[in-house]
Design a protein that fits this description.
The structure holds two protein chains of two kinds.
Chain A: H1 2-7, H2 9-27, H3 31-53, H4 76-107, H5 112-123
Chain B: H1 7-22, H2 27-55, E1 59-63, E2 72-76, H3 78-97, H4 99-105, H5 108-130, H6 134-153, H7 158-189, H8 194-206, H9 211-228, H10 238-244, H11 247-272, H12 275-281, H13 283-304, H14 308-328, H15 332-362, H16 369-372, H17 375-378, H18 380-394, H19 400-414, H20 419-444, H21 455-464, H22 468-486, H23 488-502
Antiparallel strand pairs in B: 1-2
Helix pairs in contact in B: 1-2, 1-5, 2-3, 2-5, 3-5, 3-11, 3-15, 3-22, 3-23, 5-6, 5-11, 6-7, 6-11, 7-9, 7-10, 9-11, 10-11, 10-14, 11-14, 11-15, 13-14, 13-20, 14-15, 14-20, 15-18, 15-19, 15-22, 15-23, 18-20, 18-22, 19-20, 19-22
Classes of the chains: A mainly alpha, B mainly alpha.
């Protein structure tokens, strides 16, 4: 059990990072920190995916036209997925930050609990 | 390949391009464009249902130039076609019928953006239904999240922004877990297309290799979709988001967006895993228990609510519980009942929200029951629709909700799970439903001692309140509900055939 952690250290690191991000997203009160946590979480998954596509001793596939021997290259599909994932997480982060900005302009605080109590008061 | 096989692709692309074109259009053209796109997609889905009914089998449509193990695919069968038809049709009615309230709630400058987000939301929902590729599903889950949050926050005010933030955080948590599940399943199987993954997983389970990682993956998919579709312990974001948004958004979010994720989950369960594997992993037990809890807790919370829109939103939590209970019984009739419940709720909840929007409109834009007293006399059509929706939710015969409860009860006798508990919860939840819908009806029909009942007054107001689209869409919703409640046979057969095609 224990030795697997050391041979698969990329995966182990990514799971630890995922945990850090997840806790940050769930438990942190500050909204900016929450979204930083989200980004850590996403990055952890990208590390995991990249590690899954890596084959020791091979190089990434940079130019598809000049492929000579498939044995020389790593699996390019996870890298493609990671690229797509990065694009998605950039847009999600941009959207969230815009929303946080709007929230700050309305309530003058970044603390989610405070915002919710203020919103409830406003309703009444 | 027949021409009809292009229809899923056409409807998705049509909605996406409508969204892009609407960027340079004004609010009114944007609305007309998106209504037209939704109308055309509804017709295309209806044609697709007819086509699949004729051929009797599902088909796979290749996207782009690369064949099976590498390229992207769409798979469509009866289940997908019926769901797409329901989603496009109901979205059309919700947008069309609530045009007036959208106009008052959303500032003119932002209104075309609202319709763009609606187009994108519908396109991404269709992708979730049709896709055969699990990573495409992830990308469109994220698009769906952004669009859904955008249509909540489009109504200005602090309340909606706070609700959107909560909705966004919970949704992103779900997406993160879903992505982790995808990475793990890709690492195990080396594929992203559902049928290819299915082959490898069958082999793995057969040789009992990697059982623990597979259970983790099923769990991750289940939890992520449960968060997004507001299954009981993960429902805390729902009432704020659905209760504070403008009426058209509430109708679409409660009626359609929640269902998109459940449909994706059913597709994953059927096409990637299989019912036998799920039974072996006991994931259906978890879903059953959470579903049963949701049926009770959603209703209990709704009883305490004094805001009509939040009450209807909490009732969604209970109704989602019914769907997961049907899935959790892991027998075919339970699943068909669950899928039928998806359709019924898709038709009923937008009607309730539209009617509530009308009632709120005639009582000076107040949402609490105190201000809503007697509002049904000022807008009789909304009152009638609210009654029909409530009776359907309670499960009175003749209305759609009854059929669902009937089949769920029938399934409870056949399942290997504890029949007595399932039946007891079903009865209890029916009573609880009645406990908040009946008082709501009596409040909106409340009449002061002073004012005398007069049919002529009521008849005069029928035509006077609301515009034509609003009235027409409410009447269509009522008719749809009664059709589903009285002629459920063919729909039920179609869904049974659809689930057969999935596996």
């Amino acid at each position: 059990m224990g030795e697997n952690l050391f041979t698969n250290y990329y995966e182990a690191a990514s799971v630890i990072l995922f945990g850090v991000g997840f806790t940050c997203l769930l438990l942190s009160k500050n909204l900016i920190k929450k979204f930083i946590g989200l980004n850590i979480m996403d990055t952890a998954i990208y590390l995991f995916l990249t590690a899954k596509g890596y084959i020791a001793g091979r190089v990434p596939l940079m130019d598809a036209d000049s492929v000579r021997d498939p044995e020389l290259y790593i699996n390019p599909l996870p890298s493609g997925l990671v690229l797509t994932g990065i694009v998605v997480s950039v847009s999600v982060t941009a959207f969230s930050l815009a929303l946080v900005l709007k929230l700050y302009q309305t309530y003058h605080t970044l603390d989610l609990d405070e915002v919710l109590t203020k919103a409830k008061k406003e309703e009444e | 390949m027949d021409f009809a096989c292009n229809f899923p692709f056409f409807s998705i692309m049509l909605l996406m391009f409508t969204g892009i074109i609407s960027m340079i259009a004004g609010p009114r053209p944007a609305k007309i464009l998106s209504l037209a796109a939704l109308g055309i997609s509804t017709v295309l889905s209806a044609l697709l249902i007819a086509y699949i009914n004729q051929t009797g089998e599902s088909f796979i449509y290749m996207m782009g130039h690369f064949p099976a193990p590498f390229g992207n695919e769409i798979s469509a069968g009866m289940f997908e076609a019926v769901m797409a038809f329901g989603i496009c049709g109901v979205a059309f009615l919700s947008l069309w019928g609530n045009g007036a309230s959208t106009k008052t709630d959303i500032p003119e400058k932002k209104r075309n953006l609202y319709y763009i987000m609606m187009d994108m939301l519908m396109a991404s929902l269709l992708v979730l239904i049709y896709t055969n590729d699990i990573f495409t599903a992830y990308v469109f889950v994220e698009l769906n999240t952004i669009a859904a949050c955008a249509i909540v926050m489009s109504k200005p005010g602090g309340e909606t922004i706070a609700a959107t933030i909560r909705y966004l955080i919970m949704s992103l948590l779900g997406s993160g877990l879903f992505l982790l599940g995808i990475s793990l399943i890709y690492a195990l199987t080396g594929h992203l297309l559902m049928p290819n993954m299915h082959e490898i997983i069958i082999e793995l389970v057969h040789n009992s290799n990697y059982t623990l990682p597979l259970i983790v993956i099923v769990g991750l998919f289940g939890v992520s979709m449960a968060i997004k579709s507001a299954l009981f312990p993960f429902h805390s974001w729902l009432p704020d988001a659905h209760g504070s948004a403008t009426t058209a958004s509430s109708a679409v979010l409660s009626g359609l967006v929640l269902k998109g994720y459940i449909i994706l989950l059913i597709k994953l369960f059927f096409r990637v895993f299989s019912l036998d594997i799920l039974k072996e992993f006991h994931i259906s037990d978890v879903l059953l228990v959470l579903g049963l809890l949701g049926m009770i807790m959603g209703s209990v919370k709704a009883i305490k609510e004094t805001n009509i829109k939040r009450m209807i939103a909490y009732s969604s939590v209970a109704q989602i519980g019914y769907i997961f209970m049907g899935i959790g019984m892991d027998i075919t009739i339970g699943l068909v009942a669950a899928v039928f419940q998806i359709l019924v709720h898709m038709v009923t909840k937008p009607m309730l929200f539209t009617a509530a929007g009308g009632l709120i409109n005639v009582s000076g834009h107040k949402k609490d029951f105190e201000s809503l007293q007697g509002s049904a006399w000022k807008d009789p059509l909304a009152g009638v629709s609210f009654i029909v929706g409530s009776l359907s939710m309670i499960g009175i015969p003749l209305f759609a909700g009854f059929i669902v409860k009937y089949y769920l009860a029938a399934a409870a006798f056949d399942t290997s799970k504890n029949t007595l508990i399932i039946l007891a919860v079903l009865v209890l939840s029916t009573v609880l439903n009645a406990l908040y819908y009946v008082p709501a009806i009596s409040k909106i029909y409340h009449r002061d001692e002073a004012s005398k009942f007069n049919w002529q007054d009521v008849l005069r107001t029928i035509g006077a309140v609301g515009d034509f689209p609003y009235q027409a869409s409410l009447i269509i919703f009522i008719i749809l509900n009664i059709i589903l409640g009285t002629c459920s046979g063919p729909v039920f057969q179609a869904l049974e055939m659809g689930l057969d095609m999935l596996g």
